[in-house]
Design brief:
By secondary structure, the chain is mainly α. The protein is built from five helices and no strands. Helix content is 64%, strand content 0%.
C-alpha cells in the first residue's frame, strides 16, 4: 500500500479550502515529529478506508492484537475519518 497514493485519493475525494493546506502541512509535520512508523501509517490508512481491526490484521498478515496495540499508541489526532 502506497501512503502517497492513499493521501492523493483522500484529497481527491475531499473539497479542500485554501486554509486546509496549512492544516495538512501541520499534520504531516506532527506525523514526522511523532515518528509514526510506516506500518502504523498503513494501519491508519486501512482504518480510514473502513477496514475493521481483524480485516487489517489479515491484510497485513499480523495478529489482531498487534493492530490493537499499534492503534493504542497512535494519538487520536492522526486518525482520519473514513471517506
Amino acid at each position: 500500500m502506497d501512503v502517497d497514493r492513499f493521501i492523493m485519493n483522500l484529497i481527491a475525494q475531499t473539497t479542500l479550502q485554501p486554509a486546509d493546506e496549512d492544516r495538512i502541512r501541520n499534520l504531516a509535520r506532527r506525523l514526522v515529529n511523532y515518528r509514526i512508523s510506516d506500518r502504523k501509517k498503513q494501519i491508519l490508512m486501512l482504518l480510514a478506508t473502513g477496514f475493521k481491526q481483524v480485516e487489517i490484521a489479515r491484510r497485513l498478515k499480523i495478529s489482531r492484537q498487534a493492530v490493537s496495540k499499534a492503534l493504542a499508541t497512535i494519538p487520536d489526532e492522526f486518525r482520519l475519518n473514513a471517506p
